[in-house]
Give the backbone structure.
Amino acid sequence: MTKREVKRAVWLQGRWLPEQGWADAGCGELWLEREHGRRLPRAEAEAQWRDWPLVQPALAAGTARCGPRGELRADSAVWLAWLCQLPAAAPWPMAPALSLYVRALRLAQVLVGVQDVLPFAAPVAWTWAEVLARCGELARPEADSRGWSGATGLFLAAWAPAWTQEPLRAVRACYAAQADVWWPAAGRATSAGRSGRSLLERWLWYCTDHWQRPLLVPAGESGAAVTALRTRLPYRGEQELLAEWRDHLRSCSPSPWSGDGWLIWRTLHQLYIESGWALPDLRDEAGATRYHLALQLQPPEPAHPLGDWQLVVYVAHNVWPEVRAPLAAWWRQPQRIWWIGGERLVRPDTWFLPRLYAAAAEVPELAAMLRQPAPGSLRLPAAQVTRFLVVSAAALARQGVQLIHPALAEVPTHTIAVEVQVAAATASPPADGAALRQLPWAVDWSVVVADQRWSRQEFVQRVAATGGLVCLHGQWRQLPLAAICTRLRALAGGRWAEEVVAAVGAGKERLELPGPGVIDFWSLIRMAQTLSADAAADEVGVRLSFAPTAAPLQAWWQALQAAAQPARLPVPPGFAGRLRAYQERGLAWFWQLRQLGCGGVLADDMGLGKTVQVLAYLQHLQANSASRGVHLIVCPTSLLMHWRQELARFTPGLRVHVHHGPDRLQRLADGRTRLQAARQDAQVLLTTYATAARDAEVLAEQAWDVVLLDEAQHVKNPYTRQWRALHRLPAVQRLALTGTPVENHLAELWSILHWVNPGYAGGAAWFRRTFAQPLQQAGDERTLHRLHRLLRPVVLRRTKAEEEVRSALPEKWEVIRYAALTAEQAALYQAVLAALFNRSTSQSTRSRRGQVLAALVRLKQVCNHPCLLVGGQPGPERSGKLKLLLDCLAAVVAEGEGALVFTQFRTMGEVLVTAVQQQFGWEPAFLHGGLNARQRGELVERYQSGADPSPVMVLSLRAGGVGLNLTRASHVFHYDRWWNPAVEDQATDRVHRLGQVRPVQVHKLICPGTLEERIDHVLTAKRELAARVVGPPEQWLADLNDDDLRALFALDWDVALAGEEG
Amino acid sequence: MRSLTESKPEGWAAAWASLDHAAAGWIRRSGQAEVLAVASAVIRLCVAERPRQSYEVQVPCHAWWEAHVPALARWLVWRPDWAAALLAEAWADDWLRALDSAGLSLFPNATAVQRMLAGAVCSCTTPDRPCRHILLAFATLARMADTSPRSALRWVGVEVEALLDAAHAQTAVWLQAGAGGACGQTRLPDAPQSDGGIERLAMAAVLTRGAGMRGRLEESAGPQPAGALPADWLPALDTVLWQAWRERHMTWAGVSSGEG
C-alpha cells in the first residue's frame, strides 16, 4: 500500500487533556485512526509524524513527543498552534471530534476580535467544575460571596468570554450540543469536566485567554474592563488589588497572586451581572432562548385555486430563521432530542408545546390541531384564510409566534374592470332610434382582473370560497372587494331587479351585489355615459360590452358619443346670412341629434348667435324637405319682436305666425281659429311662455316638429303649470337655448334636460344626489368630469374665451335688439304724431322745423319710457325697451361681464339707474354732464378698478363720449340713438380701445315699426352721408317734406306692438 | 391557575380541620416545606423550624400511579394538547374529566387524607401527632398540587418528564408503523395488556366518538382514531367488573366513581 493510499484511509483525531486545576492547561494529543476508531500501529504513526512538517519543529525541540500508542502529545500551547493551521496543513481528513476543537478555537478568535471578553480570577485550588458553577452564580443579582469571601488566598487571573452577543451564543450552543455527542466518545471522560459541553467551555476559555493576553497594551486601556465601575470610594487595598490583577492578566506566563477574595468577588459580580452569563441562554439546552415557533401559511397549487391552504408549524432559529425544522419531524424522533441545524436540542417540547398551547387558547384552529396526535400542520379552507390572517395574526404575534404568509397584496384597482353586458330583453329589437328607446334591455355583469374574467356566478362563488383571494401570475393577492362592490352598486343605482348577496369567505361579512336585471333605455345610456369614463387610479374601471342582439343599441350609443363632433353641413339654400365656423357646427349638431331622435340644449355665450344657428337649422329642414310639421318657438315676451325680426331677416322664406295677443284664438271667416289656420299655413309659430301656458290644451292638440324654448332658464321650475304645459307638447325634436352658465345652476339644468330628452338625466332626486350635492359641497373633479360626459352629447356650449370662437369673432360687432312698444307707448306715439301733423301744414318753415325737432325728441322719449313725457311710475312694465334692456343686462351680469348704457336723456339715465337698482340690487354709477371733471374722474376710477360693485354704468352720450377709459365693460348698450354714427362710435370706443382684452358687443335697442327703425335703415344705407353732417344732426330730418316725414315717423302697429298678454 | 381544592373542601382541607390558632399562625408564617424526594409511594419533605433546625417529614402518597404511566402516556399520544398543558403547568379540564371518568383522581378525599395523616412520620420529638411540621408538609403538598399539575402528578408517583418521554417514544413507534400524516388517520397498535382495564377503558373514554361504551368494552382491537370527547358522554362504568377492578387497584377502596 502506498503512503498516499494509507493517508486516504486514515483520519486525524485528537483531544485535549487539561489538568485538575482550572487554569492548568495540560496537554493535547493527536493520533491517526482508521474507521471504527482503530488506531494506526505505533511505528506507522511515528513514521507519519516524522514526515509531517507541521509537527517536526516541536518534535525536534522536544516540546512534542510520541506516546506509547502512537499518539503525538504536546503542551496545550503547542497543540493549539498546530490546530490553528488545520485543516490546511494536515494531509489527512480530520475527524469530527477534532474538527470541533478547530471550529471552537475560531469562535474564540472571533470573541477576542470583537472583544467580547471579561477578566476573571479564582482561587488556584478550584476545579473547572467549580469555576463554571461560580460563573453562573456570579451573574445572579441575588448572588452572595459564599465561597469567595474570607481570608486572602492565592488567585489566578484569566480572560473569559463574556457572551453578550446573541449570534456567538447561538454558535456556542451548537458546538456545545455537538461536544456532548462527540467528545466523550473521543476519549476517556476527563475529571476536569463532567460533559462534553463543559470541556468545550473550558477549551473556549483557554483559547480566549491565549489570544487576549498579547493584545493588551500597557497604559490605560488594559484595565478598562476591570476598572469600569461606578465612581465611589475605593475599598482599602482595592486599587492595589486591581493593579496586580491587571498585571497578571497581561502576563504571558501567568502565576498565582495573593488577593482579597471578597473584593475579587465584588468586582466580578458587578462585571458578570451585565454579561451574557446572566442570561439563561448559557444553561439552555432545550433551545427556548434560541428558537421560536413559526407558522407558515402555504397556498394551494395554482391548478386548484379554490383548494385548501396549509398552515405548517416550524421550530425556527431566532438568529437564522432559515435554520428550522417542521414540527411534524419532532414526533418521529425516537427520543426527546432533536437535531436542528447542527444543534442538539434536549427536550425542546418543554418550551414549544406550552407556547403552542398558549397560542391555541387564542387561535381556535391551532387548538383543533393540537387535539390530534403528532400535530404538525392543519388545513385551512380558502374561505377562512383572510379571516385567519386578520384575526389571528395579532394574537400570534402577542404570543411570540411568527406567522409567515404570502404578501397577499391587494390587486391594484386600476387593473380591475367591471364589464357590463347588455343584451336585448325582447326577441328582435328594431334598429330605429325612437323604437329602441321604448324597449327594455337586459344587463348582467362580470369582473375582469388582469387576463382573467369571471362571470357573475363565478365571481360570487369565488368570493364565498376564498374570501377574495386570487392567484395572478403565480402570486396570491387579495381582491379589493369593497371597491368592486361600490362600483357595481353605483352602476346598478338601485334600479336593477334583483340583488345577490355574496358571503365573503367564512366570516359574517356579506356583500350586496346587483344581480342580472332589466333596465330601461335611458337608464342604460345614463349609466354608459357617466360610468364608462376613465376611472381614477383608485376606482375600478367599467367597460360596456354589447351582445349581438344589442348591436343596434351599440350603434346608437356610439353615434350619440360622436354627436359632439358632427359632420359639417353646408349653409342651407334660402338662408340669408353667413355662418361662422362654430355656428356651422351648431347647425350640424342639431341635425345629428335629430338623426338620433334626441333633442339638445344650445348654451352658447350671449352674442355668439344662438338665434342664427337655430334659424339656419330650420331653414335646413325646410330646404331638405325634412320638416314633419310646424315648428314652435317659445320665448319671453320681450324677445318676441326680436325673433320676428330675425326670422324675417335670415329666413325670409319661412312663413311665420305670431300666436300672441287677445285675439290669437279668434275665429276666422272660414270657421277656423287663427291658430288652426296658422297650423295649416305657417311653417313657424312664435309664442310666449305665458301664452303657451294658457293655451296648453290647444297647442297640444297636434304634433309639432321642432319645439324650441328660448331663454330656457325661464322654465327652471318643473312644478309649475307652465312647465307641465310645455312638457305636454308633442314634438319630433325639442331644443332649448340658454345663455346662463350651466354648471352654476344644476337644478335648472336638470329641468331643461328633462324637458329636452325626458329620462336622459334621470330623476330629479337622482340628479341632485349624483351631481348637484357633491359639486356644491366639495367641487369634486371626478363628479364634474362625469357630469360633462353625461352632458356632452346633448348640451353644446361655446364661450367667447374658446379659441375656435375668438378667432371667428370680430373685435367689435353690433347687434340690433328689437323691443316692442307697450300699448301705452303706442298710444302716446300716435298722439305725438297726430299733434305734429295736425299743425305743421299751417306753420312757417322755422316753426315747422322746431315742431318737427320737438316731435322727434318726444317720439324718442316715448320709445324710451312714457314717464319721460307724461310722468308716472318709471318701472319696466311701461316700456318694452326697458324690459329688454334689463333682460340683456341680466345675461351680461350672469356671464360676469360689464356693460355701459348710453342714453341722450339725463332723466332717462335716472330712470335706468332706478330700474337697474330695483332689478339687481346694486346702483349703477351715472356719469352725466352735471358732474365736474373730478367727480367724473372718480366715477371712472371706481368703475375701472372694480371698486364699484356694479358692473353696469349708465352714461349720458355726450358726457361719456369723450376721453374716458372704461375697458372693464365689454358690452355697450345704446338705449336710444344719436343719429350721427360717429358719435356713437366714439361712445363705443370708451370700451373698444387699447387695453380691452375681450371682444366688444355693441347693442342697439330699436323699437321696430317706429321712427327708430327707419332712421336706422337710412343711417346704415347712407353712412358716409351721415358722417359728413357737421351741423346739428337732426337738421336733415327737419328738411324732409310732410309725406316723407309721415313715412318716416309712422307707427306700424303690427310690427311695433308685442301685444298685451290676452 | 384555578384552585381545585375549593371544589373539594373535604379533601386536603380535612388535614387542618381541627387545627388550633397558634399552629395555624405558625404554618402561615413558615412559608413552605422543601420536598426532598418522592419514591416508593412516600413523599419526603424537609421542614425548617428555625435556621439550622429542620426536621424530616415523610407522608405516604394517597395513590401510586407508577403502573399507569404507560396508559397515561398513551393518552398523551392521542391528546398532545394535554401534554402541552402539563408542560405549561395548566389544568386541562377535559384531561381531568378523562381521569375522573377512568376512576382516577389527583386529589385525595377526606378519608384518604386521614389515612395519610395517620401514616405520616416526623423526626421531631413533639408528642402531638400530627405535629405542626406534618401539617405544614400537608399544606405545602396541597398548595403545590393545587397550582401545579406537575406536582400533583409527582405526589402520585408520576414524574412528568418520564411520562412525556414514554409518550414521545410511543408516538414515534406509531408513526414508524406507517401511521402516515400527523393528523392520525390510522389506528394505534394494540395496547400492551399490562393492566388491561385501565388502559382499555381510559383510551376508549378518550377516543370514543359517541358510540356506546359497552360495545367498546368487548372490543379487543385497539382504540379508534382520536376525536374530541363528546360533551354529553356519560361513563357507563358501573359494571361489576369495573367496581371489582377499582377496589383491587385503587388506593382508596370503596369510593364510587366521580368522587375520587
About this structure: Chain A touches chain B at residues 327-328, 331-336, 347, 349-350, 353-354, 356-358, 360, 367, 370-377 (CB under 8 Å). Residues 32 and 48 of chain A are 9 Å apart (CA to CA). The first strand of chain A starts at residue 11 and ends at 17.
